[in-house]
Amino acid sequence: LWVALEPATYPIADETMWLTWGTEVLPSPDVAFSPLRLRFVFHPPLYLYSLGLPFAFGVARLKTRARGPLLTASLIPAAVPALVLGIALAVFFTTIRQPPGLLPAAIGHILVALPFVILTLNARLETFDFTVLEAARDLGASPARTFRDSTFPLIRPSVLGAAREVVARAMKGM
């Protein structure tokens, strides 16, 4: 992200490499907490949970040998340096002719942060008692009410911890 925000300090960066998106997207780099930056920091956790929470639940419920490889595959972006992912995404978005903007930046942030959300939620779901969900369903609760009244209170600390980590990573990148 710093490469994108300060392309002039990296003489090897060619203007055609699409490293100037930060100056086009963020109109005032001197203002640390502009509304656009804050939106960039606080919106991706919403998308991360729409992807990470169902995946973590699915992996936690699996009792087959596919569980290990799925969890390992989901953690690959955490093992790859962020610079390599950034270059790969820049090449990808340039190839599909996606103009620089907040969408490619948010997708990159989600790709980098998703493994940490999955890992944090998976740590809690390892010891989660899924019979609580079955009992709530047997007592007539809808899936939404089961999640709201039974599941979410039990996983709330992990959800909040993962959200803090995602926001901290986004703020660090700014």
Continuous helix count: 10
Tell how many strands the DSSP assignment holds. 0
Question: What's the gyration radius in Å?
Answer: 19 Å
Q: How large is the share of residues in beta strands? A: under 5%
Order of helices and strands: HHHHHHHHHH
The major beta sheet can be summarized as: none
User: Could you say which structural class the secondary elements and strand pairing correspond to?
Assistant: mainly alpha
- In round numbers, the mean pLDDT is 78
Fraction of helical residues:
over 70%
Ranges where pLDDT stays below 50 over 5 or more residues in a row are: 1-19
User: First CA to last CA: what distance?
Assistant: 7 Å
Shape: globular
What's this, in brief?
With 174 residues, the chain is mainly alpha-helical. The protein has helices at residues 2-5, 21-25, 35-42, 44-61, 67-74, 76-79, 82-95, 102-125, 131-138, 143-173.
Describe this structure in words.
The structure is a single chain. α9 (131-138) packs across α10. The chain has helices spanning 2-5, 21-25, 35-42, 44-61, 67-74, 76-79, 82-95, 102-125, 131-138, 143-173. It is globular, with a radius of gyration of 19 Å. The longest helix is centred in the C-terminal third of the chain and has 31 residues, at 143-173. Mean pLDDT is 78; it is low at 1-19. With 174 residues, the protein is an all-alpha fold. Helix content is 71%, strand content 0%.
List keywords for this structure.
174 residues, mainly alpha, disordered N terminus
